[in-house]
Amino acid sequence: MGRSLFELRTHLAPPFATVLLGEQARMAPDICAIVGRLFYEGRLTVCPRAAADPAWREKRGQAAGGRPPFDIVSVPEPGRYSRSRGGPVREASSSLIVEQVREALNHVPPGEVLILTPFLAQMRLILEQLRAAGLPRVSVSTVHRAQGGERLVVFFDPVLGRSPFLRGEAGARLINVALSRAQARLVLFLAEEDKTNPHFKINFG
To answer: What is the pLDDT of residues 162-181, one digit of tens each?
Structure first.
């Protein structure tokens, strides 16, 4: 109890005793490829039944609204610890998220947009900015609370990608959860310092 199956697989179980997820029907192919490359040894694919379903493909294409299924938005500053807010925050990425949400709502309803961040302080800051922009119905959550959920469009702001927590095994699992919630479009907000995290160094192109 209290230990991840991923950790047990790496350190204890012999290779023949474990099986990695090989097929999924949630994520569009481009998103699936990224998650598979990062966390499933490149083996994760869209299941053939979903890939051959015109309605499955059309739903994801319409939700993306002509934008790439996966995108990285450059954030001009790193996150910082805010004593007044009680945790890591990043004003620049929260403002960029509001802009991206406004554009996404041209293609999907508010209930199909999810904003994720590892830190409660940043979640509260984003909520404040959404309300100020008149966009209060969009969901904002910490990644832990989002496990098991999914939305057509997901925005993920790691805020402080260089933090020891996000660089470790627990951080890798959290990033896996965040990226794999998206069905049609995934947008990742990264400053240059975030890219020192090995989980964000991969070539996403």
So the answer is: 999 899 888 999 999 999 99
Task: Give the CATH number for residue 64.
Answer: 3.40.50.300
Examine residue 164 and state whether it is found in any structural domain, yes or no.
Answer: yes
Residue 126 in any domain: the answer is yes
C-alpha span between 70 and 10 (Å, rounded): 28
CA 101, 37, 25, 59 torsion-angle sign: positive
Whole-prediction pTM value?
0.89
In order of 20, 95, 134, 179, the CA distances from 194 in angstroms are 28, 18, 29, 16
> Is residue 163 assigned to a domain?
yes
Asked if the structure places residue 205 within a domain, the reply is no
Asked if residues 34 and 11 have their Cβ atoms less than 8 Å apart, the reply is: no
The Cα–Cα gap between 179 and 35 comes to 7
Number of residues assigned to the chain:
205
Q: How many structural domains compose the chain?
A: 1
pLDDT above 70 coverage of the chain, percent? 88
Other CB atoms within 10 Å distance of the CB of residue 172: 18
Instruction: Show the domain range for 84.
Output: 5-200
The segments of the chain whose pLDDT lies below 50 read 1, 204-205
Please list, in sequence order, all residues whose beta carbon lies within 8 angstroms of the beta carbon of residue 134, skipping any fewer than 6 positions away.
none
Question: Rounded to an integer, what distance in angstroms lies between the CA atom of residue 65 and that of residue 85?
Answer: 35
Render pLDDT for 177-203 as a digit per residue (tens, 0 to 9): 999 999 999 999 999 999 999 888 765
